[in-house]
What we know:
There is one protein chain. By secondary structure, this protein is mostly helical. It contains nine helices and no strands. It has two domains: 1-122; 128-266, no CATH class. Helices cover 87% and strands 0% of the residues. This is ABC-2 family transporter protein. It comes from Caproiciproducens faecalis. The chain crosses the membrane at residues 12-35, 47-69, 100-122, 149-173, 185-210, 230-254.
Amino acid sequence: MLKKLLKYEIEATARIFLPMYALLIVFALINKFFIAVNADYLKIPQVISATLFVAIIVGICVMTLVVTIQRYNKNLLSDEGYLSFTLPVKTHTHIDCKMIVSLMWAVLSVLTSLVSILVLAANDKTMVTIQQVFIDCINLLNKVGPGGYMILLESLVLMVIGVLSQVLSIYAAITIGNLSSKHKILLGIGAYLGFGVIEQIITSVLASSFEGTISRYFESLRLAAVSDQVLAAQYVLLALVIYMFVFGAAYYFLTNWLLKKKLNLE
């Protein structure tokens, strides 16, 4: 059933994102044309086009957040929630669907923005530079060994977990806000800010508790072998992944529990 929900959700949101992605690429090509021509009589259109290009990138980032909030709230906490929760689907499956699609569009938005910038900046010199940077990165990873690839993998996992944790914190805050019959938005914003405060407090407590140990550990690595430094980086990234995963899991189970036990569709 998750596959059917994902198909429906992707189709519904694609109508929003795909035209924006196409528009971004079009303006990247238009700006590239203006740069290539570099004529004085095209200065004003060039400025306007460049401004719109930046505005579309910002708009895509904002729209990704807006759609994340709007789709979850509309499908599960508004009148549509009556239909959604009559489906033979477990509550957590609805959450899984929303967060997977939100992650997908967040990744695609970043990749599309990067591609548009690459299209805008692409020339013989920049392509050679990009190719050289890529070769240098591969050589560095090969020099470091398997540990380098593990650091790269852990970094990617950390970014994914970080995005999902933020998405789930938004879902949890919206669901808490829905508990109020009159001040849903205000309570939701307060809940989201409260989550941030709790995270900061926990981070501060952990950092102060292990500050001395962490400082001594990294000081000892200053003159250590490269292999030891790489291993230390792996441990740090693994700790961050676990840390972000714990918060994400907490938001996930809180949201699931609230939807199952405290759902208010009035």
